[in-house]
Amino acid sequence: MIFKKPLFLFLLILGIAIFLRTYMVTQIPPGVNRDEASIGYTAYSLLLTGKDEYARPYPISFQSFGDWKLPLYIYATVPAVYFFGLNEFAVRIVSVLVGIGTVALTYFLVLELFKKRSLALITMFLLAVAPWHIHFSRVESESNTAAFLITGAILLFLKGFNGRTYLFIPSWALLALTYYTYAGNYIFTTLLVCALFLIYRSRIRRDKYVYIGLFLFVILSAFIFANTVFHANRTKLSGISIFSDQSIVSERINVPRSEHANKIFFTKLIHNKVVFTAGRIAENYLSSFSPQFLFTKGGDNNAHNIPNFGNMYLVEAPFLFLGFTYLLFQKKTKEGWLVLLWFLIAPIASSITKDAPHSSRMFAIFPILPLVVALGIESAFSFISRKYSVVLMVSLIVIFSLNIFIYLDCYFVHFPINAGNSWGIGYQKLNQSLSLEDKKNKNVVITHSEYSPYIYLLFYSKYDPKKYQENALRYPLTQDGFLHVKSFDRFEFRDIQWEKDFATKQESDAFYLPHASASANTYYDEFEYRDIDWRKDYMGKNTILVDHISYPYESRIHKPNQEINIIFTSYNKAMLFIIEDK
Fold first, then answer.
1. Which runs of E-coded beta strand occur in 142-200?
2. Distance between CA 167 and CA 225 in Å, rounded?
3. Cα separation, 364 vs 351, whole angstroms
4. Looking at the chain, which terminus has fewer C-beta neighbours within 10 angstroms, N or C?
5. Is the bond preceding residue 29 a cis peptide, omega within 30 degrees?
6. Residue 132 · residue 370 · CB < 8 Å
């Protein structure tokens, strides 16, 4: 039997996991996303100045765009930036390593839970090739890092019952560190800790190591909560809650109330925040297990999913159902309860936010999700006779292989071409253009400050953090608590004032970079759709407008005169919109 060579299979699966998480990791995804650029530049700033972009020395919570990032991943990235420089590899290497580490730890966790090497190897393989986990291991991901910490913590916790109670100390320390890593773990880790006490209360001995571990957990947790949940991160939490979008609250509560002829007590009884909250959370929770989210589309955040592909393989669907059924109706063991509660707790953090289902906030379901699928596969084999098991095994290998190859084709071939507009490759090319000798001293105006284009320019130009801290100007806080950069150095982030800006074009040389939209399939007489010969096209021009564009086309640019030539170019579909003044 193949499972009689566990070491060989373990190393083979680990090798697959390493390859899928490192192959072309600096090119795919194409360029950094906004959070990657922010974390990378913040680590760079800490390395060179000991301060973040707001000139705060070694903070615990980083204000960033106003989303208040947690510290662990940022500080873990500082050594990577020191050794590898400020680039995609340095920003992603921490996530790559913890992703690979989670695959390895999962084998030992499942072995500890169920004492079955075959089940442990199947789960490990499913995690190694999981689309959801592969993608989050190839980008900067705090949720991926938290999943690694949780997996290690639970493994140590379970091993602590085997006469090695000293393992409870690192176990509780790792659980506390998840609060320093990802905001979704404020809820998930807290609920999981409650589940651990509920399930294992009779086995937790009154031991000095248990007390030391719990004391460490409480101290570490209290410290980060005092600096985040009860301070800075209140802005972030309020901005993503289901009540942050007042239009939805009005639509679901105030409008239905107004439709009643008489405003009686019954009206307020059924149209209120309590009923709305309960219904919305339930809706969000169930949508986290919807076929669309899991198998066909994924979430709505383009940084967390690849186009036209779900978070799981379609072939896993029946086995996910079988595995969940097995957990529900099996003779309950402590380990079975732990897996079931972990599985059910995971979507809660995402369910209380406005944009659920959310691939990152639900990532705490790893590594239990592939374990449930593996339990389903094991159950399927237990239902059929021995002579048909070979047929089922061959069928599974063929269908799984087909699903995996389709995903790899989507990810490594089509994803970098079709999703470039959601990543930073366009800004990388833009920075290269603006750094040319004939353009590096000109002023630059970029629209849509809310998209944070400044952070890409800081990242790709490796702009001096000390200079940025001294000359950056920002707009006032938005209603949601976000901060947008107004200007730094020669860059200004504002709307284009067409009449004024073009009226003075003879007096100053400037680049104007407005955000617009266009379709790769849309052509117009005045548009020339081609790659740009940067030096030829820009030579001798006084004013140039460049746009990093997305789809579909919406005509938002009003030409001040007919002396404007428009050129489209694309670099892996990361579109640049160039308007040149003749």
1. none
2. 25
3. 13
4. N
5. yes
6. no
Q: Which two tokens stand for residue 361?
A: 């906030």
Radius of gyration of the chain (CA): 26
* Rounded CA separation 76/67 (Å): 19
User: Which 3-state string (H, E, C) describes 420-475?
Assistant: HHHCCHHHHHHHHHHCCCCCCCCEEEECCHHHCHHHHHHHHHCCCHHHHHHHCEEC
Q: Are 485 and 468 in contact (CB under 8 A)?
A: no
Tokens encoding 316? 């896993």
Q: How far apart are CA 425 and CA 30, in angstroms?
A: 5
Task: Mark residue 481 as left, alpha or beta (left: phi above 0; alpha: psi -120 to 50; beta: remaining).
Answer: left
The predicted model gives 166-178 an average pLDDT of 97
- Per-residue model confidence as pLDDT tens digits over 492-501: 888 766 556 5
Q: What is the pTM of this model?
A: 0.86
> DSSP characters for 256-274?
HHHTSSS--HHHHHHSSHH
Residues 6+ apart with CB under 8 A from 175: 149, 150, 153, 189, 192, 193, 217
The Cα-based distances of 555 to 12, 407, 473, 475, 579 in angstroms read 53, 35, 30, 27, 14
Length of the chain, in residues: 582
pLDDT in tens, 236-295: 555 566 655 666 666 667 667 666 766 666 676 777 777 777 888 899 999 999 999 999
Exposed/middle/buried for 323, CB within 10 Å: 0-12, 13-18, 19+?
buried
Q: Distance between alpha carbon 101 and the CA centroid of its chain, in Å?
A: 18
* Helix axis angle, 88-114 to 71-84, nearest 10°: 130
Residue 540 backbone class (left: φ over 0; alpha: ψ -120 to 50; beta: rest) = left
**Listed residue (393, 441, 443, 421) closest to 516, CA to CA:** 421
